[in-house]
Amino acid sequence: MDLKENELSPAGHGIPLCHKAWTAYGGCFLLAVVMVFVLRLAFRHSELAAAAVLAASALLIGYRVLLIRSFQLYYDDVGVWLYSGVLPWQRGVRGIKWRDLDQAFYVQSFRSWLTRSWSIRVTHRFTDASAIMLSHMARGREAVAIINERHQQMLRDDRLA
């Protein structure tokens, strides 16, 4: 995985690790298929109902796509962070500082190997409530390796200092 030191996360700082994979959009595709059938039924009722269904489905599917695209896992000198959110009151960053990080791991399965879409978990040393759990992450396997490598390096550096 090529990480550029000068490339920043959407939050404006840190080095990006991974984002949602193509498999995360499966729910949006299924919703679009269902909405096409609902739209056909609405056209039988009235054109105004069809327009309302079309507008509502476009907004709903558009929002879900933007929400999926907003997920960005990154790290900096302080810790590992997850940026997400579309609407101003939803946007935010949460994460785990290096000193509180326990480990990062990914779930191995045939589906994840086949689709290259990994479920990852970054755990907090003291509580499970602060863990970062993500599904359908592209390059999740590489991100976990980078997080664990960086964490071990920081532990070694801390012992030597």
Question: Termini distance?
Answer: 30 Å
| Cα-atom radius of gyration | 20 Å
CATH topology: PH-domain like
* Category from helices, strands and their pairing: alpha+beta
Low-confidence stretches are 1-6
Beta content? 25-35%
What is shown here, in short?
By secondary structure, the protein is α+β, with helices and mostly antiparallel strands. It has 4 helices and 7 strands; from the N terminus they run E-H-H-E-E-E-E-H-E-E-H.
Write up this protein:
This protein has four helices and seven strands, in the order βααββββαββα. The protein has helices at residues 26-45, 47-70, 110-115, 140-160, and strands spanning 15-20, 72-75, 79-84, 92-97, 101-106, 117-124, 132-138. A seven-stranded antiparallel beta sheet has the order 4-3-2-1-7-6-5. α1 packs antiparallel against α2 (47-70). Residues 1-6 have low confidence and may be disordered.
Fill in the keyword field for this structure:
single chain, 161 residues, alpha+beta, PH-domain like, 4 helices, disordered N terminus
List the helices and strands and how they pair.
Elements: E1 15-20, H1 26-45, H2 47-70, E2 72-75, E3 79-84, E4 92-97, E5 101-106, H3 110-115, E6 117-124, E7 132-138, H4 140-160
Antiparallel strand pairs: 1-2, 1-7, 2-3, 3-4, 5-6, 6-7
Helix pairs in contact: 1-2
